[in-house]
Amino acid sequence: MTEKVKLIGATNGAGTAADAKVTSIVGGMAAGADCIDDLDVLRHGAMPAMFAGTRAPSTVGTFLRAFTHGHALQLHAVYRRFLGAPAARTPLVPGAEQMAFIDVDSTHKRVYGRTKQSAEYGRFNGIRTLHPLLATVCTPQSRPVIAGVRMRGGKAADFRPEVRQ
Question: How far is Cα 92 from Cα 88, in angstroms, rounded to an integer?
Answer without folding.
Answer: 9
